[in-house]
Amino acid sequence: MSQFRQIDSHFLASPQITLDDVAAAQALGVKLIVNNRPEGESDDQTPGSAIEAAAHAAGIAYVAIPVTHAGFSMPQVEAMQKALAQAGEAPVLGYCRSGTRSTLLWALAQAANGANPFEIAAKAASGGYDISPIRAQVDILSARAN
Question: Could you tell me which residues come within 8 angstroms of residue 142 by beta carbon, excluding any fewer than 6 positions away?
Answer without folding.
Answer: 111, 112, 114, 115, 116, 117, 120
